[in-house]
Each structure stands twice: as structure tokens, then as C-alpha cells.
Amino acid sequence: MAARTRAAASADNAAFDGAIRVAFGRMARTRRGLDAAVTSVKMSPASLAEVVEIAEPGMFLSLLEGEGDRIGLAVMCHSLMAGLVEAVTTARVADAPPNPRKPTRTDAALLAPLLDTLLQHIAQRLAVAGGAAAQFDGYVYGSFLDDPRPLGVLLEDVPYQMLRLRVQFGDGPREGDMYLVLPDVAQAQGTTGPAQDTTRQAQWTAQLEATVYAAEVQLDAVLCRMQMKLSAVSTLKRGDVLCLPESALEALSLETLKGHVVAKARLGQARGQRAVRLTSQPGEAPEDYDVPFTLPVSAARILPAGPFDTGVDTDTDSEMDTDMHGFAMPDDLPMQTMAEDIAAMPDAPTDGQ
Q1: pLDDT above 50 for 302
Q2: What is the DSSP code string of 250-304?
Q3: Distances in Å between the alpha carbon of 345 and those of 186, 252, 348?
Q4: Which of 50, 27, 49 is CA-nearest to residue 37?
Q5: Is the model's pTM score more than 0.85?
Q6: Cα 230 vs. chain centroid, distance in angstroms?
């Protein structure tokens, strides 16, 4: 009985492998000059973590869309992607290995018809051979991914079936791997329902929240806005000093790149470094809040470049007038020192912010 079971399983595996090889061969014959064949077939279960691990930078990644909002993944190594692109564009595959490069949307546009044809032939051949045709039925090319990092959010945390194909071009040394990762149909049929949908929604929300909170945000500390004539701006050079009002130390704003005010603050010094202390909670600044100090053209003064004493000893904190948290009061920070630093910045904006 055990021998008969092993023989039946071996026959099923042989029929599955044969169907996959024939499907890929029929897909290859639809493109002139594409002399390629599958030399190895492996089907295995996989978790979401295992799927994310195989998607390394430099690989070709595309989402596959199936029936019922099912989402799969197609992965190609660089060698296989380059060979298929060469066959589509030049009707031949070079013997020399391709140079490494990053996949592009042009590659995706060229490979999308091949993926659709391959998935269609696999489903048809498995249906004829009596295999798991439902696992591949209904899938088509969805979209291109240029970065593997969002996969943990885009794909659902469900059991998957991963089909790995080793493809060889002609009789030469060129070969590569392709992965077709699809949600396990057998597992999905036994775990559907309102409770499962609620769990998936909660998991997706948690993953999205973790991804958003891990993102970086750039904030600009705006001391003062200065209006200057274009002729004066064009003559600025390294070492020039922009004279700002001392009152700008006590009222500045933290702004996003689009100019949205996040919080109010004042300028100071802590541990020998320029620092700002928040004077309002983030988000409490009104939408129309603006830096109160805007110097008109008539008030703009520029001192020519030249040596002057900054008056700040950055090697010690003992002489700084600090509060209980080690934050220096604005009186210890000469305005000319700060203005020199702003003027010396190579990427300082020309509008005087």
C-alpha cells in the first residue's frame, strides 16, 4: 500500500512537471527567437516572510491579479529578465551574460504579455492533466514594482504556493530562475468568512501604520523671511552676512517642505550645538501662523565678507547660560554668528529663509 501511494504521488508530480514544461514551451514559441526551456520545476508552500525573502533588490517584481481580489507575485532574476527582454526586442539571446541593471517599467511592459500567456497555458495544461488548475486560474499581470520593500504591506499574510522554474536559454550557459507565488487556494477555501476578513483588515491596518510611522520627515526651522532685490541676491558670495533682527531668536517656526507650520519654537544652544526649543505642542500652531518677522527690501542689510569674532566658545559648555535641561538662552547666541552660518550654507535658499 505504501509503495502504491508513493508511485501515485510520483506520477502526479511527473504529470505536474510535464504540464508546467509544456506550458512554458508553448509560451516561448509565441515569441520569435525565444529558444528557452524549463529544466527544473519545484512547487512548495511558503509563508509571507519566505516570499519577502526571495525578492532581493535587482530582481524583476510584478504583482499578479486574480479573481476575488487575490494578489500574487511574479519574480525573475536579472539573467532571466534580460534574456526574455533580448528575445522580445532583438529576436535573439546573446551567449554572454548580461550586465547588472535595475529593472524598469519598460521591461515590465515587454514582459507583461509573456506572463499572461504563461499563466494562461499553465492553467489550461493543468486542467487537461487533472492537476491543480484552480491554483493558477484567472491570474493576469497586475503592476510593476521597482522596490521589494512594500511587499510586506501589499501582500496578505496568508499561506502561499510558490512555483520555482529554472529556465535555460538554448544549449548555452545562460539560465535563470522564475518564481510564481500565489495564495494557496485550498487554505483560502477553508478560512473564508467574516471573522477571517476582520482579522485580515486588522493585520493590514497594523502593517500600514508601522510602515507610515517608520517614514522619515524633513522639517525646516525658519527664523525669518527676507525680501531682497534679485540684483542683490545675484551678488551674494560665501562669507557675506545677512543681518537679521534679534527678535527672530524668540519666534521661529518648524515647517514641512510644503510650508505647513508644525510648531512654534525659539532659537538657542545646547551642548555646543545650535538647537530650538518648542514653545507649542506639535499640531497646535494655527494653519495661518507665519514667521512674524518679514524684512522688506528696504530693511535688508548685507555685510561684506570679512573676518569677525563670533564670540562663541564651542569647546566648553561651562560659560553658557543654560536652564535645567542644558539649553542655552538666546542671549548667548550672537545674531551675526547665526547669520554667518546661514549665509555660508551651500544650499541656502535664495528667498532668504
Answers
A1: yes
A2: T-EEEE-TT--EEEEEEEEEETTEEEEEESS-TT-S-TT---S-EE-GGG--EEP
A3: 62, 19, 5
A4: 27
A5: no
A6: 39
